[in-house]
Design brief:
329 residues; D-Maltodextrin-Binding Protein, domain 2; nine-stranded mixed sheet; 13 helices; globular
Length: 329
């Protein structure tokens, strides 16, 4: 009996030492997470925080700063590269000057629908783009959904590219977007976003293009009668982390963070789709005419882009133009 208790005491001592070593490895770490203004991303940030803290046994604390509190996308990404911010969500467009391959996401009709977009982002090309972020000190974690850009106007329901001929359309100051709308025989007009509502109201421009969340958030339905779900450009959010910061975490903390990324990404994408349905219902109730394009109708727009060599314009800006060829296949 004495021998039994002696061996039991030794076993408990060894177990206690092992547990103590494990806890010592998982030192408490606080991570600063800069999030964007999208409601689906804000909701997903809460999921990310909950999962990371739970799965790490409380050794990770995630402080989420929503709605670009720490600066605009460019400032936030630079801050994450330098290590002032640990984790960041950002639209891809402001990052293209740092990562030229992000110009791929300015390509009109690169993706025909959401399923197509997710397949590309989660497939080989999307993962290569995330991996290449390490050259600038960032670890690409995942693609969240910003959404498709859609077209609104005050003239007519639009299904085919010929129906925008001659329309004056507000666009971003973006070489690819301007070339695309000219190829559709429209009159693209770069304009500050802050001036857009008034310009639509006064008829200075006939229409504009933006994701549904932007259209609804800025009440463009009040000054635009027609929404066409052209889905002509798909813009993702990039979720990334300072690479050195990630590498300092314990294996347990990395596993917790990876699980937080996976669960929050699934949640964010589903939430984004839910919110878009709510926006469309609200728009119809406001009297807006919503036009849903078929896959064949979207293909007609894509064919114009191919004929106008818009994809070649994008490839000239990219570091790895073969990525675009792979996705177009």
């Amino acid at each position: 009996m004495k021998r039994f208790f002696f061996l039991l005491a030794i076993a408990l001592l060894i177990t206690g030492m092992a547990v103590g070593t494990a806890f010592a490895a998982d030192q408490n770490v606080t991570l600063r997470f800069s999030n964007v203004t999208s409601q689906s991303a804000i909701d997903a940030g809460k999921v990310f925080k909950e999962v990371a803290e739970r799965e790490s046994g409380g050794s990770l604390t995630v402080i989420v700063y929503d709605s670009n509190q720490l600066g605009d996308d460019r400032v936030v990404i630079e801050g994450t590269i330098f290590g002032d911010i640990d984790i960041a969500a950002s639209s891809t467009s402001p990052m293209a000057n740092i990562f030229p391959d992000f110009f791929i996401f300015d390509s009109p009709y690169l993706f025909i629908d959401t399923e197509h977009a997710f397949a590309g982002l989660d497939g080989e090309v999307g993962q290569k783009i995330l991996k290449n972020m390490e050259t600038k000190g960032l670890r690409g974690l995942a693609f969240w959904e910003n959404g498709f850009r859609n077209f609104t106007n005050n003239r007519t329901p639009v299904r085919l590219p010929s129906e925008v001929r001659g329309m004056k359309i507000r666009t971003m100051e973006n070489e690819v977007h301007l070339a695309a709308w000219r190829a559709f025989d429209a009159n693209p007009t770069p304009m500050a976003f802050t001036e857009l509502f008034t310009a639509l109201q006064q008829g200075t421009v006939d229409g504009q293009e933006n994701p549904l969340g932007i259209i609804d958030g800025n009440k463009f339905q009040e000054v635009q009668k027609f929404i066409s779900l052209t889905q002509h450009v798909y813009t993702p959010f990039i979720l990334c982390m300072n690479a050195d910061r990630y590498n300092t975490l314990s294996d347990n903390q990395k596993a917790a963070l990876d699980k937080a990324v996976a669960e929050s990404t699934t949640y964010q994408r589903n939430r984004s789709q839910e919110l878009e349905k709510e926006i469309l219902e609200r728009s119809v109730n406001m009297g807006t005419v919503v036009t849903h394009l078929t896959t064949e109708e979207k293909k007609a727009w894509q064919d114009v882009m191919i004929e106008a060599n818009i994809f070649d314009l994008v490839k000239r800006r990219m570091e790895n133009p073969s990525y675009l060829d792979e996705l177009l296949k």
